[in-house]
Amino acid sequence: MIHASLQSASLSRAARIAALSVALALAGCAAGPNFKPPAPPKVAGYTEHALASTAATPGVAGGAAQRFNEGADIPGDWWMLFHSAQLNALIEAALGNNHDLKAAQAALRVAQENMLAQRGAFFPSVSAGFSASRNKQSALLAPVPNFPAVPQEFEYNLFTPQLEISYAPDLFGLNRRTHESLQAQAQAARFQMIAAWTTLTSNVVVTAVAEASLQEQVDATRQLVGINQRMLKILEYRYDKGYASEIDVAAQRAQLAQTEATLPPLLKQLAQTRHALAVLVGKFPSEAPAEAFTLADLHLPEDLPVSLPSTLVAQRPDVRQARANLHAASAAIGIAAAERLPQIELTADAGSTALAISKVFTSGTGFWGIAASLTAPIFQGGALLHQERAAKAAYVEAAEQYRGTVLGAFQNVADTLVALEQDAKGLQAAAAAERAAKTTLDLSQRQARDGYIGTFELLSAEQSYQQARLALIQAEASRFADTAALYQALGGGWWHHPELGKR
């Protein structure tokens, strides 16, 4: 008999140990797939042919040769390479005042707080309560029990302090997958904020360059209008004297009108660019800075970093955001799968009930209770199954979006590299045309002083020079703008700023 009792006790202990082992094993697993970051693309470069350096054009703004340094790091404050204190001040103001950036920062805080709030699911929930009531009982019913020092009455007070504890063991990883999803969403919000940061810095540089370029184009166009007006007066005088035909006068009037027609669009673009620059730095359009700088105030960076393709996917914020979205979609599969499995909830409560508040914590007034519940979905009309299938389809969608974002990032870098190469060649040709036009103008001025040509012919040479100057201004601006675009395309160097975090 004693042997049977000992055997029963041994079996009971073994059963408890086995049950505990199963519970621990279940607590260590989580439904759904474990996320694996996508591998970097296996490509050697961005363009069909390797780029070493661009052509140089001495003597003009932005005419330096640019060297492409493969594998070099992106400076955190790359805009300082343009050596413009005014440009640096604009970017500093934009980073401190831009409302789109502030909104993205607030969205990041929202996502982080939601993630931190969900951590509470891993711990028991404890709540305390206290209730006090005044009651009257029917005289036809039995009177309330006679507590010490409390007479039997049909009217009485009831005081109940109570402590409640509940805990849901995360057997199948529902809480862990939910936390994983919220972590990924917080990462996505972080890289969305970083994308806003990099886009803002690049936009300030590009907009400032556009403003300087447009101002110089407006000045050159106004000179062209003045030249054509003087040429028209000369032809009208010659026509009156019989030295020019009406066709010549009409042609010159048409040319003047065409030149004047190019000025309003330039003035409109200049005003809109100034308004855009004001908004980027957090000001109203009417508060746009009065001072302006020229392209000659800028220095063109000569050494350009070109990140390795395997590194690009780790530093482009849009690619990192797409990867975080993919991670969240992976965790969502686990959430949907865990919803189809049983859930256990453990609860306990303890408290005291007394007719007088002074007797609440005396002997005999306490109560307690312990409960466990198991809930398992049996029939939901296929809802949970289809929700899991939808989560898997959403993962496929996020995966394709990630791959598309990677391809778009590589295209962005490739387009910018080709643009820089062609910008240099375009500037070289524009500078050659401007120098030839300037030489023609200088010779025409000498001939005019010596009496070999008239004022009209001299004005024609000045007109050709201003037209060549317009093309040169546009070519110079393209090199500065596309250089800024390259830094943005490669990620913007955000990882050098501690407030933005590491890669």
- Major beta sheet summary: 4 strands, antiparallel
Q: Strand order of the main beta sheet, please?
A: 2-3-5-6
CATH homologous superfamily assignment = Outer membrane efflux proteins (OEP)
Give the CATH topology: Outer membrane efflux proteins (OEP)
Q: In angstroms, what is the radius of gyration? A: 39 Å
Distance between the termini: 70 Å
Helix content: 55-70%
| Tally of discrete structural domains | 1
Second-tier CATH architecture: Up-down Bundle
Average predicted local confidence, pLDDT:
90
Give the class-level CATH name: Mainly Alpha
Outline: elongated
Low-confidence stretches: 1-27
Write down the secondary-structure element order.
HEHHEEHHEHHEEHH
Strand residue percentage: 5-15%
Number of helices: 9
Number of strands: 6
State the secondary-structure class: alpha+beta
